[in-house]
Write a structure and sequence with these properties.
α1 (2-37) packs antiparallel against α2 (42-82). The protein has one domain (2-82). 92% of the residues lie in helices and 0% in strands. It is an all-alpha fold and 84 residues long. It is built from 2 helices and no strands.
Amino acid sequence: MGTVMQRALYTTLMVGGPIILVSMAVGLVISILQAATQINEATLTFVPKLIVVSLVLIILGPSMASQLTDFTRFVFQVASETSR
C-alpha cells in the first residue's frame, strides 16, 4: 500500500507540477508588470495564464497521459496481486 501512495504522489507531482509552476511564473510576471505600471485589470492576469497553461497542456499532454496510464496499470497490477 505504501508503494501505491508513493507512486500516486510522484504521479501527481509529475502531472500537475508543470502546470502549477508555469501558472505561478506567469502570475508573478504579470503581478510585477501590474505593480510597475499600476494597471489593475482582472482579465490581464487570467488571459495570459489561460493561454500559457493551454500551451503547456498541448506540449506536455501526451507525456502526462502516458504517466497517468502507467500509474493506472500499476494500481491494477498491485490490486490483482493482492487479491490472489
